[in-house]
Amino acid sequence: MYGSVRWVSNFGKIGIVGVFWGKMENLRNKKRGYEQSIVEDEANLVPDSKKSKLPALASVIVEALKVDSLQRFSSSLEPLLRRIVSEEVERALTKFSNDKLPASTSPPRIQGPGEKDLQLHFKTRMPPHLFTGGKVEGDQGAAIHVVLVDVNSGSIVQTGLESAAKLSVVVLEGDFNEEDDDDWTQEHFESHEVKAREGKRPLLTGDLHVILKEGVGTLGSLAFTDNSSWIRSRKFRLGVQVFPGYCEGIRVREAKTEAFAVKDHRGELYKKHYPPALHDEVWRLDRIAKDGALHKKLIKADISTVEDFLRLLVKDPQKLRNILGSGMSNRMWENTMEHAKTCVLGGKLYVYYTDETHNTGVVFNHIYELRGLIADGQFVSLELLNHNQKISVDSLVKRAYENWHQVVEYDGKVLNSLTSSKNANRASAVSIVDNNYDPNHCISTIQSRQQQYISSEPSPQCQTTNNH
């Protein structure tokens, strides 16, 4: 509390006075005690051997004289001490009542009706980690965009001098403003900037400035020269702020990205791919370390690529879960599956025909997910199946998985080799399959449909069993 030092000084004096008065009171009590004992001893005519021995008369007299001297001294000193204590207490109370709050605790300034409230904002999400020497990019290799926003309206500022401002790109500590409160001060923002370690190159190199155009800017080529393992949070953030000389007199709040780790480029050899490719080695998936125990289990089961992983995940998720075993927890299993499902599929299609006429069959995509039914030479997508067709699909999928060696990979050559009286209808049916197939279709959407129409497919709960 403000003024605490003054209080300590003032009341220190009062404390000394209190000690003095306490000593005086003790001496008075001693004097009364001696006087009382003398009176009692004189009144007691019969000596009692059991009573304690009385003090000598000379010592009693000396003590009495001392008390009298102190009493006379205190009588003359008392008015002076009272005046000093009174003045000090009054001065301290006056000082305390007149103290003002520090400037740092002053209430926030109320924004006037004509004032602007602007803020920079990153529109691109960052990946969980980057590598030294590599280009700084957003999630999935996206360019990093920043915009100038009017906080009151939420719209991008596209006109005025502010919309063409120059920005500086800086590196921030990963734990800066974790509570996501955007109302920081410029001083607070700058106090969390990270500079290069002593003897090291600049932490961030490349195009360290951005020019807004109609309120939108894109970060140029940037690269980190050092990892983030040496700071407390072990992560960095990118930040942008208005370059000095621009937007004078206007407070434009700075922007920050999500926190991300920066690793040495040597670790790039072992990095995960976002999203993974079908031909990627299976250890590129989250939670599967290269040459680790889980990786070795998968290789032993002839699952060497992401494509192999996804195909078994579709055909028999319980078998895949058992292969990984208790070394992969439920959470790890979920993370690995979600990462695998972000894989972009190719355009291959597979058909399982029930007979040599090729009049009835089921169509699968690249990772053996059900795409639809061929009935009477016509393709019917999952959404259009009636009740009887759903039952038919159920049994056909079981047969296809049990006899996968009979599944035909569809392409133009296979179609041309299947010449018969019904080839024209079948060609048009397969053509419909192609037109309805989106190579970039999400796996999770197809999987949910497959579980809806195929009762024999294991339930989602089976994907998390046998986890210990």
UniProtKB/TrEMBL annotation:
Species per Swiss-Prot/TrEMBL record: Dipteronia dyeriana
Domain Calmodulin binding protein C-terminal: from-to ranges: 348-410
Entry's Gene Ontology cellular component terms: nucleus
Q: Which UniProt keywords apply?
A: Activator, DNA-binding, Nucleus, Transcription, Transcription regulation
Q: Which InterPro entries does the UniProt entry name for this protein?
A: Calmod_bind_C (IPR046829), Calmod_bind_M (IPR046830), Calmodulin_bind_N (IPR046831), CBP60 (IPR012416)
The record's PANTHER family line, in alphabetical order, gives:
CALMODULIN-BINDING PROTEIN 60 E, OS02G0177800 PROTEIN
Domain of life the protein comes from? Eukaryota
**This chain belongs to which protein, by name?**
Calmodulin-binding protein
**Domain Calmodulin binding protein-like N-terminal, first and last residues per copy:** 118-265
Q: Where is the Calmodulin binding protein central domain?
A: 277-343
Q: Cellular location of this protein?
A: Nucleus
Instruction: Spell out the Pfam families in the cross-references.
Output: Calmod_bind_C, Calmod_bind_M, Calmodulin_bind
What are the protein's GO molecular function terms? calmodulin binding; DNA-binding transcription factor activity; sequence-specific DNA binding
UniProt keyword DNA-binding, yes or no:
yes
One of its GO biological process terms is:
regulation of salicylic acid biosynthetic process
Family statement drawn from the similarity comment of this UniProt entry: Belongs to the plant ACBP60 protein family.
